[in-house]
Every structure is written in C-alpha cells, then in structure tokens.
Automatic annotation (TrEMBL):
GO molecular function: helicase activity
Protein keywords: ATP-binding, Helicase, Hydrolase, Nucleotide-binding
Tree of life domain: Bacteria
UniProt name for this protein: DEAD/DEAH box helicase family protein
Source organism (scientific name): Nocardioides cremeus
Domain (Helicase ATP-binding) ranges: 28-223
PANTHER family registered for this protein in UniProt: ATP-DEPENDENT HELICASE IRC3-RELATED, TYPE I RESTRICTION ENZYME ECOKI R PROTEIN
Pfam families xrefs: ResIII (PF04851)
Keyword Nucleus: no
Amino acid sequence: MRYTLKDYQASKTAELIRSLRRATRDLEGDASDYWSVALSAPTGAGKTVIASAVIETLFDGGGEFAEDPLATVLWVTDDPALNEQTKRNMNQASSTLGPSRLKTIDASFDQEIFEPRRVYFLNIQKLARSNPLSRSNTNAREYSLWQTIANTIKANGAHFYVVIDEAHRGMKSESDRATIVSRIINGQDGLNPPAPIVWGISATPERFNQAIARWTVQRTNKMITVPLEAVRGSGLLKDKIVLDNPAAGQVEGDTSFIRAGVEQTLQFEDDWRTYAGEQNEPPVVPAMVVQVPNKPSEAEMSEILGTIFGAWDDLHDYNVVNTFGEHTAISVNGWTIAYMAPQDIQDDPQVRVVLCKDAISTGWDCPRAEVLVSLRPAVEYTYIAQMIGRMVRTPLARKIATNQTLNDVHCYLPRFNKSQVQGIVDRFSEGRSDEPPVEIVVDPVTIERNTDVDPAVFDLLEALPTYVVPGKLYRTQVSRLHSLATLLTGDNIVEGAIAQVKAQLTAVLQAQRERLESDGTFQRDLERVRHLRIERSYALLAAETLEDLPGEASYEVDRDDNNIEDLYRVAKRKLPEGVATNYWDSVISAQGEDDYDPIEAKAITAVLALHSEVVEAVESAAEQAVRSWLREHQRSISKLSDAKKALYEPIKRETRSAEQTELILPTSRTVSDSPQKWGKHVLATEDGQYPLPIKGWELQVLECELKDTDLVAWYRNPVGGTSALRIAYRGSQFDKSMYPDFVMFHNTDAGIRPSIIDPHGFFLADATVKLKGLAQYAEKHGDAYARIDAVAEVKGKLLALDLKSEAVRAELADVDDNEVEAFFQKHAGDYA
C-alpha cells in the first residue's frame, strides 16, 4: 500500500482477509457452503482504502497472509461514475493494483472467465436484458456476462469474490421480480449458479443483511463493523460542522448568506496559505458548494451568480462549475458555467465554486470543499444532510493540531430556523442514516491563545507528560521498527538506521541460536526440519489374516528443496521486513565459499522462526529499539513539519504498552458559544472569555478554583486528540486513556506550577481503574505538579484525594469498586 493505514483500517483489513480466507477454505471442503461478509463502514472511514488493502493482500500476500494466485474480484455497483472513482482511488492507494489489474467491463468485454488477480468493475445496467453484454451467441459476442460469471464460479468459485459496493442499494424486497444484484448473488436456474462468496460494503448494511437472510440461498454470515469512535479519532474527518442560520424573527437572506459563504471560503484560503507557508508545503485551495433548488428560474440563477461574482474579486467563469443532472453548460446573464463530472472536481484547483441540486453523487468526495451554502428549504433536510456528509474529509487526511479552525466545515442555511437546524444536529449526533461521526457546532465562536495569560503557562502546558495508548495491534514490532528506521533515515535524523536495525536483529537471532544450541535443542529441531518421518501401515486385501501382514514401520526421507522453501516462506512471515532474509544471508556468509548451501541456510532460519520464544525475543528487541529511538530523537521529530510528524503517530500507537508523547496546544479552535463564560482560560475569545456550559459539582470545582488569588490560568482538558492531557489506565483488556477535567496553573514559591484537578464520579463503571491510573501517573510524574487531586462529592460535600501522597497511593492499590467511596471518606480532605 502507498498509504499508511489507520489503526482501525489495518485491523478491519486483517479481519476481512481472515473471514474471506475462511470462506475459501469452507468452500474448498464443501462447494455449497456459501458465505456472506458485510463491512459496515461509516461515511469517511476510507472503505476504498480498506478494500484496496484487502484485495492487494489477497492477490499478493503480506504480513501473516500468503498470496492467493487464484483470487478474482467482481466489483458491482449501480453507478458507472462511482466505479471509475473507486478505480482511481484504488490505483492511488495501492502499490500493486495498477491499471493492468483494475478492469472496467465495457461493451467490448467478451471472456470465458474472469482472470485471476484482477478486479473487474461492473455497473449493473450492463446486465439488463436489453444490454448486448447480457446476451451471447451473436455475431459480435461469444460469451454473455452471465456466462462469464457462471464459468468463473464453476472453475474457481472458492476464490471468486463478488463485492457489492453501496450494498444498501439494489436490495429492495423482490415482491415483483428479482433485482440484477439478487440474480448475481442468488443465481438463476439454467444460467448462473449462486455467487459463493459475497462481500457487501455500506455505511448502512441493514438492508443488505436482511436481504441475505431473506433469500433462499443459505449462507454463513460475518459482520465486520468499523467503530464510529475509531473514525472520529483517525484524522480523516473534520472535527466540526459549523451551522449558521437566520436568528429568530429574521426573514430569509439568501444573498447575505452567499456573501458570508464567499467570505468564509476566502478566510479558509488565507488560513491555508499561512499554514502552508509555515509548513513549507503546497496550500489547500478551498472550494464553496452552492446547493440550489431543483428547478431554479433564470432570475434566481442570475441573482445567485451575481452575488457570488460580486463578492469574490478575480473570480472567473472557469472557476465556477455545475454538476446538474443535465450534464451541460448553463448560460446565465452573460456567465457561462461549464458542467464538470463530480469525480474531477477535487483535482482541478481552478474550480472554486460548485453549483449542485439535490446532491452531487453517491461516493463523491471533495475534501477541499469546505463551505456549503444551501438554498434548499428545511423540508429537504435529507438532501442537505447528504451533501454535508460528502464534505467532511480532511484535505490533508490528517487533523491540523495548531490552527484547528482548519478542521471545520461551514454550512450556511438561510431557509432554516433554529429548531430545523436542531433536526440536522440530532440527525448527525444520533447517526440516523449514514451521516459521518462529526460534531455539529451552532452559534460558533473562535477561541485563540489568551493574550492575558502569562506566556510561560503555554510552555508548561505543552511540556506536561501525556501518553499514547496502544491501538489494536496489526503489525509486528519488527515492522514498526522498520517503518521508524525508514522515517528517521529519510528525515536525516539517524544515519544508516536501516543498516543498524539489520545488524541488531540479526545479532538477536544469532544469540537465540546459540541459546538453543547450548542444550542440543537446535540440532534436534534442525534434523526434524531436514528430514520427514513417514509411518507405514497395511490394510488387509489378499492376505488371509492380519498376522500375515508385516508390522507397522516408520522411516525417514530427506525433505526436498520445495518443502524447505515452504518452511522458509513461513519463516519470512514470522520474521518480516527482511529479518529472515538477512539472517539467511549471514548464515551463507558464515558457511564460507566451499560449504555454500542456500537450502541448508534456509532450513537453519526456519528452525529459529518455528520457535515462538525466538520470535518474541526479536519482537521485544524491536520494541525496545523503537522506544529508545522515539525517546532519544523526540526533540528532532517535534521540529519536523506537521505532515512529516503525522507519519510518526501510527508508529507511536503500535506500541504494546502506553508510551509518553507530546501535547500540542492549538493556536485557534471553533467552539459553540454559551451564556456561561469564564476568564483566565488559556484559550479565549477576543474579549478574554471562554464559553463553557457546565453544571453540578464540576461547576462547584471550577468556581472554587477561580476564587484562588494565586490562580494565573486554567485549561479545560478536551477528550481525545493531540491537545489533550492523556493518562493511561488499564481497562478490562487493553490500555485506555482518561482525560482529567482541569489543569490549573498557580503562582507558588517555586514559580508558576500546574495542578491536575479531576472531579471523579463513583457511579461510572470504570471509576476505580481510572482513579488507579491517575495514581500511577502521579507516582511517576508527581514532581511535575503542585497538586494532583481527585475530587468527589460524598454525602453532599466535596472531598479532595491527594494522589501525590505515597501513603494514599499505596492503600488505593488494593481498593475494590465498592470501596472507593469509603476510601474517599477515610483519606480525602475537605476540598473547599
């Protein structure tokens, strides 16, 4: 893959491959053991990237998976444009799925079977009864598409994967007649058998799953779901969608909102230019989408275009395009607005304004389209929500940690009132359809670094020890180390890093070999690898009695070279990134010219790889090397551009235990306004206030802290992201992150010092393990803080538990869930 997969993408890729391989094995054992696999991926999850990684691994192998030279994919949609966009995206994402392997089925297609290691893109209209491709025995065609499908299933069914993209479509109830998709999946008597393995992809797979269950062909069903939380944290989606609508009592103001949209687009352009200059990379060129009624009059279009051109200096006709269903240019009051296919917009930086109607197209993505002005009424909120959902991908496929307003999408809704806007907010927050998991902001305000706060506070905040917890591991630590070495070499931080890795891991394998040799284990295992023991027994045929037969016997034969090669291939999967090959090469070198035996060297390497403790020793050495390099070169890495730093983040998350990282305080962020406003926050509006709706005893804690005359600043710790203070704790199975609510900064005799103040509720299921995680953090990093207090309300009174106290931490280690409240009563002091 050309792209580095996000944690969840790699995890779901591996899960999909295992499911598809299992389906293949089942079908090889029983040709009627049909399978269905559904990938439920929220909008913006990168389903094409996941699919590309799966198909690339099916075809060519990778990591723990061997190649399948018979694998063939038929990719089915109802939209030719979507197929072409998917083809282009796969070609960009994959390092091996080039044009020769990605084939569009067109009018000239005529094959007996689909070739292995190819992806064939089919839009279902080509299988309509009126389409020549669905018929054979004509002068122009030997095989119909139905025959090609049938022949491929008969010849290669266990390795033939039918992918239904946007699988919620084409799955309607067939009370009248079967859909084309159902005929592909279920087969047709006398024409094509059922597709043995079907893989559906959708943000809303319920209809697909219901259809599979309803149809007569019985299948083993596997559901694979990409969690919303994983997509939220991936950096692939914008942080917020900002909605603006007329205030109560105001009449519609279409042209005013269009001008506001232009102004916001130009603001994005200016901010991107500044950011690109700071990072020394090409700027993003933002675009504005204007959603017009289905049948706008010429007067309406003239007013819309007149407002856009009037508000936007130096905008030309060629900077504005339409995606109307008529697929033709429009001419209005002297302006000629060309038609452009949706999939071409993203890559044409000249396009700055896009005119559309109810929607642009399913699967359309244009990450640089960052402003929407919708002139649709609220009753058409579905069209508007769908359009918003197409505009939430981040232009750089990562979050901007500094100017976080660049992580926003702005939507102007002049024909909505407040309650109607709330309908959009509810739709997204509840995930009612296929809306992406993005926060909605109404009444937005921008907060920036508070100029009233002592600059030393910002440095102190960014220096606080914060942790990254492991993602769902999918790569070996060896692969992790190899990726880090490649980055450090490319960024001129460590010279010859890859050569160092090679030497270090080869030395680990040699030490493990010597350990096994010391008790004879290695020699015995090598004999077992070199030789194959065969047991011989007899069956009664012509002999009169069993006693007439020879007794059971066994004997040994030398394994042939192909058998040793098979074991060596296993070794290369267990010791990836050239580790097995490097060791094999070292064995060859040690043999000397006269004793050169490459097969013997492969057998020796296989012996080591077949010992799990040897593989773990290599993994542990690789993990330790990663930690050492990240710690040693953290300062150099922090000086890199954001784009380069982002490449190190997946490597940090591939740890097997929590590791320390850096906190990045943003320079700017968009938040919802609130009647409750507070001073002294490190981020504030122009008037020095921080809007934060807060209640309960969290409110009491904040009010109490703000009364302290020594308080110079405070920080409301966000939940998630690089700007959060993250503290690791052990959950039921994995390391997780907790986010203490407040970091307070006070004047002390030792200067300005930070304190963690965390209101702590007993009612939460993980309250005890989080409290213990905070205590472990205090034990390790307590010297960095003046106070680390967990605050809880006990019998109407706020109590503060001093987690810098060694005695408190020692007793807390043995506290159970039902003992926490009593522990507070015994050890905590009066918070006030």
